[in-house]
Amino acid sequence: MSFEGFPVAALDFYDDLEMDNTKSFWEAHKPVYADAVRAPMTALCAALEPEFGTAKVFRPYRDVRFAKDKTPYKTHQGAFVSAGPATGWYVEISAAGVRVGVGYYRAEREQLAAIRSAIDHDRTGP
């Protein structure tokens, strides 16, 4: 399957899920998720794999064990490609549209100080 974009049905699915984040809604609309969200995200990751590497497509279920918010499903679909220790690229689709990012997470105090110093430096910051 080649990536041909995300259909409007994906945006509509997440718009509706934000309004009714229940198991009954999910079960009734699971085929829409599979066809309009999961399949295009998997195709996008496959298309980008030669250049960026293998992506992890996240599961749609929230871990609610310790959360006050017990809604069972994520209101977005994300995928992540690791580029090194705690660094990588991210893509996400939700009712708001598609967003992409790159970054570093899980920085220890010393690492974060070094990153901030490099960003603030006149030569390396820009």
Write the topology of this structure.
Layout: H1 8-19, H2 23-52, E1 56-57, E2 76-84, E3 87-94, E4 97-104, H3 109-120
Antiparallel strand pairs: 1-2, 2-3, 3-4
End-to-end distance: 40 Å
- Envelope shape: globular
- Strand tally, please? 4
As a percent range, the share of strand residues is: 15-25%
Largest sheet: 4 strands, antiparallel
Quickly give the structural class: alpha+beta
The number of domains is 1
How much is the radius of gyration in Å?
Answer: 18 Å
Low-confidence stretches: none
Q: Percentage of helical residues?
A: 40-55%
Mean pLDDT: 94
The secondary-structure element order is HHEEEEH
How are the strands ordered across the major sheet?
1-2-3-4
Number of helix segments? 3
Can you offer a commentary on this structure?
This protein has 126 residues and is an alpha+beta fold. Helix content is 43%, strand content 21%. The chain is built from three helices and four strands; from the N terminus they run H-H-E-E-E-E-H. It has a four-stranded antiparallel beta sheet. Strand 2 and strand 3 form a beta hairpin. Helix 1 crosses helix 2.
What is shown here, in short?
This protein is of the alpha+beta class.
Notable traits:
single chain; 126 residues; alpha+beta; 3 helices; 4 strands; 43% helix; globular
